[in-house]
Specification:
This protein is mainly beta. It is 0% helix and 52% strand. It has no helices and eleven strands. Strands 2, 4, 5, 6, 9, 10 and 11 form a seven-stranded mixed beta sheet that branches. A four-stranded antiparallel beta sheet has the order 1-3-8-7, with no helix packed on it. A hairpin with a 6-residue loop joins strand 4 and strand 5. The chain starts with a strand and ends with a strand.
Length: 124
């Protein structure tokens, strides 16, 4: 069992930055790959980025490459998403999720534990 709690969302202007954090409790997060997803109103939840158990391998959706960076601190049981050069289309609720395996897939079904989400709003 485990729990994931996101923080760091908020309102930012176009071009600004935010850093999201996900704190894991319960079973050690370092046993699993982790991912970030987002969901905008009226749209399906979509993959943003993922990171392997060790933190060595990282995956990103095309629309965030070069702007977002995912990282993890296994000693602290946290995963972070640094978001730079934010655009209005990045507005969404962002979710942290734990993979069912050691690799970070891009599909919602590949993750079994989810945080409650944190709202990110980018104003134009």
């Amino acid at each position: 069992q485990g729990q994931l709690v996101e923080s760091g969302g908020g309102l930012v202007q176009t071009g600004g930055s935010l850093r999201l954090s996900c704190a894991a409790s319960g079973r050690t997060a370092s046993d699993y790959a982790m991912g970030w997803f987002r969901q905008a109103p009226g749209k399906e939840r979509e993959f943003v980025g993922g990171i392997s158990r060790s933190g060595v391998t990282k995956y990103y959706a095309e629309f965030v490459k070069g702007r977002f960076t995912i990282s993890r601190d296994n000693a602290e049981n946290t995963v972070a998403l640094q978001m730079n050069s934010l655009k209005p289309e990045d507005t969404a609720v962002y979710y942290c999720a734990r993979s069912r395996s050691g690799s970070a897939g891009t599909k919602v079904a590949q993750y079994d534990y989810w945080g409650q989400g944190t709202q990110v709003t980018v104003s134009s």
